[in-house]
Amino acid sequence: MPDLQGKVVVITGGASGLGLGLARRCAAGGAKLVIADIEAGALIQAEDELSRAGADVLAVRVDVTRQEEVDELAQRSLDRFDSVHMICNNAGVSVQGLTWQQPYGDWQWVLDVNLWGVLHGIRAFVPHLVAQGEGYVLNTASNTSVTSRGGMSAYIGSKHAVLAITECLQHDLRALGSPVKAAVILPGLTRTRMADSHRNRQSRYGHDRPSEGALAPRRAMVEEHGTAPDEVADRVLSALDDGRFYVFTHPEDIEMAKERLAGMLSGFLAEASTSLQALIPASKAAP
Ligand SMILES: NC(=O)c1ccc[n+]([C@@H]2O[C@H](COP(=O)([O-])OP(=O)(O)OC[C@H]3O[C@@H](n4cnc5c(N)ncnc54)[C@H](O)[C@@H]3O)[C@@H](O)[C@H]2O)c1
Question: What is the distance in A from the centroid of ligand 1 to the CA of 177?
Fold first, then answer.
């Protein structure tokens, strides 16, 4: 783990899953924390847990799709701790559906949280990090940023964008001669509440809730095969300590990236795993 003693780490989506795992591990390393999340109840519980474990923690209810709320998050973090050393743009949501059928509300929600949320975080915090002359920008993309499959255009499109933007950000920082570092997490399957993302869907995107029939196998798959978020957080911090930019949390995902690249170089799209395609509800699969 990088030396986080006394450093200030801000984590969006910090009330659950990978964000909370990162918060726990950063706190164990001596960091002060700002956890930001849209889900008020989970945020209070996470704040309570982290402060009982001895962390100095500020919890802020934030909707990352709102630029002004993310700007205010940066200001409140600085007001409380005077400095920020790491911004983890981690909040994310997922939906499934066929590319041409998925309602616009789904597309807008996923792109607003997963893409614009990250961009708002970059714009709100990077000027401070650059002026300070140190810090990290850690963006959570996905193992699906390096591959593709059916039923997940909106999510996978958003995560490809996060990967590309983080690469470009690191190029910008280098061009500026800034020591601030960017890195991108490409998590593999992690035991979180991602299958239940709709719990935080804002009403302005419509209420297209997945059916229980579609949710049950997704929850079961995550429960059965997902890695614990604290373990994934350990792998992330260890990769940062090694100076890595691309943070694969599951080594097997590197093979997916190789297969994708081999397909691109040969000019043919590789077959995708069908496991997620099988989860598309039959009613939605009809053209
Ligand atoms: N779980 C996995 O297998 C997996 C795999 C690849 C990538 N990821 C990514 O990891 C990140 C964390 O997700 P997770 O798996 O821990 O899921 P999770 O649902 O447990 O946590 C996501 C958090 O983001 C918060 N959030 C949602 N919308 C928000 C908004 N508008 N503003 C602020 N906070 C908001 C949620 O309240 C929740 O606390 C996401 O970016 C996700 O895409 C997860």
Answer: 32
8 Å CB contact between 134 and 125:
no
What's the token pair of residue 242?
A: 């090694």
* Active site annotation includes 104: no
Describe the strand order of the beta sheet including 57-61 as a list of residue ranges.
Answer: 57-61, 32-37, 8-12, 86-89, 136-140, 181-186, 246-248
> Which pLDDT score, from 0 to 100, does residue 286 have?
38
CB within 8 A of 181, min separation 6: which ones?
Answer: 135, 136, 137, 170, 173, 245
Q: Kindly give the number of the ligand 1 atom that is closest to the alpha carbon of 64.
A: 32
Contact criterion met (CB below 8 Å) for 71 and 124: yes
Q: How far is the CA of 93 from the centre of ligand 1 (A)?
A: 5
Q: How far is the CA of 247 from the centre of ligand 1 (A)?
A: 17
Closest residue by Cα to atom 1, ligand 1, is 190
Asked whether the whole model's pTM tops 0.90, one would answer yes
- Using CA atoms, how far apart are residues 85 and 230, in angstroms rounded to an integer? 21
Q: Looking at the CA of residue 185, tell me the nearest atom of ligand 1.
A: 7
State the Cα–Cα distance between residues 155 and 153, nearest whole angstrom.
6
Which of helix, strand or coil describes residue 37? strand
Q: What is the helix, strand, coil percentage profile of the chain, to 5?
A: 55, 15, 30
Q: Which of 49-53, 67-71, 242-246, 268-272 has the lowest mean pLDDT?
A: 268-272
